[in-house]
């Protein structure tokens, strides 16, 4: 008897299979036939949900992006967290926990999956500065920050973090990374017109991690 599944369930089943195969074989090394065999569906069923292998990749990127943006938004709206710490936690929320998130991060950093990596970077750069900007405006209202360019400041911050601290873009020793973090905090406080030392906990946290 043929099993009929809800459209969303079937779509996620295809994405789960593709995610696993892309992690094992890379995007270019995975064929639509591989995905069909893993899910156990007919080609017509696959093409009903995704018109091509590229569309499947876009579906994975969308699902992954929704996860990280949802996590970032959740932190941004939690006003029980101090503003300075909330900014940092939003950035840290971009690292999805669990095996699924780990698998995606590992295989998007492989050379054969460079396009997927680029697309996810684009999603982060186009969305995260806006999430952070609302926190900065809240800080301006409270007198913690003083900048006429809250969005532009956050755009600079996200682009810097998304490139300099991306292992594929810049290779650094632990000492070099710590130096970059110190410089980042120093300039972040000046970009935002924040009190000197207000983001010092970031340096202390990374410093303690590097000692472990």
Descriptive notes:
The chain is mainly α. The protein is 72% helix and 0% strand. The protein contains ten helices and no strands. The longest helix is centred in the middle third of the chain and has 28 residues, at 114-141.
Could you give a short description of this structure?
This protein is mainly α.
N→C terminal distance: 56 Å
Rounded radius of gyration (Å): 20 Å
Beta strands, count: 0
Spans of at least 5 consecutive residues with low confidence: none
Could you tell me the CATH topology label: Tetracycline Repressor, domain 2
**Percentage of β-strand residues:** under 5%
CATH architecture: Orthogonal Bundle
As for the number of domains, it is 1
Shape: elongated
Mean pLDDT across the residues is 85
Helical content stands at over 70%
Keywords for this structure?
212 residues; mainly alpha; Tetracycline Repressor, domain 2; 10 helices; 72% helix; 0% strand
How is the secondary structure organized here?
Blueprint: H1 7-25, H2 32-39, H3 43-49, H4 53-76, H5 83-92, H6 98-108, H7 114-141, H8 150-164, H9 174-192, H10 200-211
